[in-house]
Specification:
- The complex is a heterodimer of chains A (about 110) and B (about 110).
- Chain A is mostly beta strands and about 110 residues long.
- Chain A is built from no helices and 11 strands.
- Chain B has about 110 residues and is mostly beta strands.
- Chain B is built from no helices and 11 strands.
- Chain B starts with a strand and ends with a strand.
- The chains are: A mainly beta (about 110), B mainly beta (about 110).
- Chains A and B meet through β5 and β10 of A and β5 and β9 of B.
Chain lengths: ~110, ~110
């Protein structure tokens, strides 16, 4: 059981480039989330989804886009990368109900230069 | 939005010491969760609390859901070097999202 898988683990982007961070879960969870974590800081919610075809903004959505065409996949798209997007990005998923909290992926470390 | 305060921001531990940290919220909630993040990894759920006054243990970790339902405490007994990392409290908020505290960074005292 792989859980939540994120790719790539590391990436360096030049300013203005675009990329997609991939997230896949094999637990049939309806709820999926994208967070960013800046050095020494907590987790900030970028976008989330409560099911295929349904997405909503979190607290820091600017500069990002998401889509949810299947239950398993929740990719995060960065358009026109900026240095302020240098961060570690975590994808998470959960079942309905809070008993087990979120299951997190191992993260993607992104540097924009 | 929901205000969640986590203290302390950071602390140093010496092997064998007991460690305590806490979180307080501005509103009443029904679920408190505690996570640990090891360096280079995603957070992992340690303990979940669902009832006011509930005390739950997981090995050397003990967490309590405050009786007012606005706070929670996490204690680590007899700390060991692998306890270092970042500990987050989180609330199961209405609206399908968890709200995370800013984290408590545990470091080893040299």
């Amino acid at each position: 059981n792989a859980g939540v898988t994120q790719t790539p683990k590391f990436r360096i982007l030049k300013i203005g480039q675009s990329m997609t961070l991939q997230c896949t879960q094999d637990m049939n969870h309806n709820y999926m989330y994208w967070y960013r974590q800046d050095p020494g800081m907590g987790l900030k919610l970028i976008y989330y989804s409560v099911g295929a075809g349904i997405t909503d903004k979190g607290e820091v959505p600017n500069g990002y886009n998401v889509s949810r065409s299947t239950t398993e996949d929740f990719p995060l798209r960065l358009e026109l990368a900026a240095p302020s997007q240098t961060s570690v990005y975590f994808c998470a998923s959960r079942e309905y109900g809070w008993e087990y909290g979120y299951t997190f992926g191992s993260g993607t470390r992104l540097t924009v230069v | 939005g929901q205000q969640l305060n986590q203290n302390p921001q950071s602390m140093f531990i010496q092997e064998g010491e007991d460690v305590s940290m806490n979180c307080t919220s501005s509103s009443i909630f029904n679920t408190w969760l505690w996570y640990k993040q090891d360096p280079g990894e995603g957070p992992v759920l340690l303990i979940a609390l669902y009832k006011a006054g509930e005390l739950t243990s997981n090995g050397r970790l003990t967490a309590q859901f405050g009786i007012t339902r606005k706070d929670s405490f996490l204690n680590i007994s007899a700390s060991i070097p692998s306890d270092v990392g970042i500990y987050f409290c989180a609330l199961g908020e209405y609206g399908n999202k968890l709200v995370f505290g800013a984290g408590t960074i545990l470091r080893v005292k040299s």
